User: Which sequence fits this backbone?
């Protein structure tokens, strides 16, 4: 059974950077458009960015545009989210999933931006 595995989170100061990784055990994500989502404390999960299966098209929420970059490596079957110029409001648990959110959610990876 496919299981999503997110990694790369941590504690970082404002202005810092992190790179998140999303992989799938038990199957490949290669055929799907994949999105990154985040859930801040006390808030609903929201979409942050997504990338088409061919990497041709990407999307970013206005709140992260110009700071985050999504990419995928088909050889490693991994989708990345490079996060630069992090702000405290970027704090939350980050998840990946198909853009239609049809896969079981993974555990996510915690990102905390604080001084």
Assistant:
């Amino acid at each position: 059974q496919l299981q999503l595995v997110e990694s790369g989170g941590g504690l970082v100061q404002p202005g810092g950077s992190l790179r998140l990784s999303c992989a799938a055990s038990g199957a490949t994500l290669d055929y799907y458009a994949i999105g990154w989502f985040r859930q801040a404390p006390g808030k609903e999960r929201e979409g942050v960015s997504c990338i088409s299966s061919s990497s041709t098209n990407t999307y970013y929420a206005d709140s992260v545009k110009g700071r985050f970059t999504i990419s995928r490596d088909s050889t490693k079957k991994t989708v990345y989210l490079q996060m630069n110029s992090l702000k405290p409001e970027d704090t939350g648990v980050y998840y990946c999933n198909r853009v239609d959110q049809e896969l079981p959610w993974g555990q996510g990876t915690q990102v905390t931006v604080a001084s």
Observations:
- The mean pLDDT is 95.
- Strands lie at 3-7, 10-12, 18-25, 34-39, 46-51, 58-60, 68-73, 78-83, 92-98, 109-113.
- The two ends are 40 Å apart (CA to CA).
